[in-house]
Amino acid sequence: MALYDAFISYSHAKDKPIAAALQSAIQKLGKPWYRRRALRLFRDDTSLSATPHLWPTIEQALGQSRHFLLLASPEAAASKWVNREVAYWLENNSIDTLLIGLTDGELAWDDSAGDFSALENMPLPPGLAKRFPSEPKWVDLRPYREGAERTASKRDAKFTELAADFAAAIRGMPKEDLLSQEVRQQRRALTLAWSAAASLLILAVAATTAGIFAYRAQQEAIVQRNRAEATLAAATQTANNLVFDLAQRFKNSIGIPAALIKDILDRARALQQQLSNSGQVTPDLERSEAESLMETVNSLLAIGDTAGALAAAEQARQIFADLLAGNSNSADYQRELMVSLHRIGDVQVAQGDLAGALMSFRDSLAIADRLAKADPGNALWQLDLGISNERIGDVLMAQGDLDGALHSYQVRQDIVSRLAQSNPGNVDWQRDLAIAYEKVGGVQAAQGNLTAALGSHQEEFAIFDRLAKLDPGNADWQRMLAVSHEKVGGVQAAQGNLAAALGSYQEAFAIFVRLAKSDPGNASWQRGLSVAYDKIGDVQIAQGDLAGALKSYRDGLAIAERLAKSDPGNAQWQFDLGISNERIGDVLMAQGDLAGALQSYQVRQDIVSRLAQSNPGNAVWQRDLWVAYVKVGDAQAAQDDLAGALKSYSDALPIMERLAKSDPANPGWQRDLSVSYEKVGNAQVEQGDLAGALKSYHDSLAIRERLAQSDPGNAGWQRDLSVSFNNLGEVQAAQGDLAAALKSYRDGLAIAERLAKSDPGDAGWQHDLAIAYGALADVYSRLDHLDDAGRAAARRSDHRSIGCALAGQRRVAARSGLVQRTDCGFDEVTIASRMSAELICGGF
User: What's this model's pTM, rounded to 2 decimal places?
Assistant: First the structure.
């Protein structure tokens, strides 16, 4: 039995958009509402999305097709691939099964020669010469070659009628009969979902009743039992298709509330499960159910339902595990099990369960490794092996294991690099290679190797630039090109090259402006534009242009507000709205508008508080709630509302304690916890609670000592430790325990000296060193029993403090405000740290 109703052959250089539009139109003509498509057409860009782009695979697809649809053009006639596909078809099939759609050039039949005339712009491949017994009917698609995507999106009636010529021929029915079946217009997604679910519910009740009755009544005639089983199987497959389609449709929906999306998906899945449990289902139906569950995972993650997403992913994994147990030699089931483990790991990452995610991804890697070793020439399995390594790299990156992450990313890069070199024309592999460069560049930036990071991101950019120029109408390539501009800009900003960074961000902004104007209803492009405004605002702050940054952030906020207002239940859009308010609060703080800053921070806090309460298992939202409390506390402290600041910091502390306890191996959360203790300690010092502050500082110090010992080469953790010693010394000195204060300050000074010596040109280290010398000099001056040597040491410390401070001030000024430190030596949240964090974590 043929797998495909038709094989589409076309020129990739010119006819990809019209091929896609034609495929979509043909597959939808006469489609019943409960099916994904009326016909199944092979087109390499869709059917080979996860299959090697090699001739044996194309040959296999040709052998499994009933018709051959040629999009004729001079480019197609010159294409070696089109000629090869035509030759294979004619060797194995009748010329009557070959259909022609003319997209460019001229076709003129010469009756005397019994063939098409050999014109200069002949659109037919040479292999079709003298092959037609009489003039064939061909369809003129030339008016639609340009703007095919707009034609498809607007459902042009004339284009649909032309597509019906092909659909009717393929289905073997009169064109007018086919068009009479075609619905005039698809209903809105929400109406379709409810009506489909209601219809299925009726079908399910009838099918389930029939199935149970048939199985319990042994004496019933076999024909009745078979009919019940067939009805049940059809209903089950319909339910599986419904869940899959709804999940895809709702993934990036605008205007449909997230709560309603979840409710519809839950109802459809419940119906799906009811049907599956009502009788014996085939392996194909079980596989279909699992695939629809995995698609549901993506939709539930998009609306922030991590618990529902994990349940769906686990259910899919169990189905594939059971299928594999019944057929252990099936490579397909092994691969599906691997993909389900990827889904589970993705959800665990969203929940902050990095250890669990690492285990899931390593289990998937084991399967991918076995498949790849079994057939090294299978490109799909090589890609799977690379993807598993990439996901492991993502988790190691989040855990702070930069060397491990870099190794995993480089394995992925090596695999996809070999594939891309073997077939430079495969755009999917070129895209994968660009993403591999992006991942490697992210680690290099996190390691401080900015030169290497810039090189990696520039390689990424070069690939997406080529792809975008090859196909200017491909919106996805344009979006990826914009993101590449942002990646390059992030490294340039971290290098202090703010002018270049601003230029890169503005290039990205221009692309997102064009995309957003072309389709105002596309939420992804609107969000991309909002992020582009934020990126530009980040550089403007670093340049000292606070007014310009505030305008950019408010432009981004306007977009975030529109998206959030369109669906108050969409967690991602609410999250973005909170971030925009936080950025505005940062600028207002820098401008001295403390009241305005506090208001913006409180808006952010209210949003993330609702999100965190709606899903306590989402670690990302829990940490963001901690950040929101800290930001509010900082604004309150700046307004001298010390009681309010202490309450905010104290409310933040238990959140981070829970996170750090849930994953002690996560260094990021451990550091956050040390900062939280320090913030509380700072507020206690301001209120005169020295005993409470000393305990808070000791708690912070204990964490920082463990982190510094675990990675002595991590300068940031070493500096944190130095700051903790200084904090202790300050409180001990205030309590009159000068001996203890002297020891603490000396311990902090030893670290500051090592850091300053490692990079004499770093203004921040020099500034810290000045503070350490000054603190030490202050303690010396208060010790009454100092001898001449002690007084000399005090004078040296004082002089060194002044010298380092002056050097630090000069370098800080030279760096245009990129480094901002408080008098106590503790980093406040600045734009420089934010840009570095986004660079390390991947940003948008």
Answer: 0.59
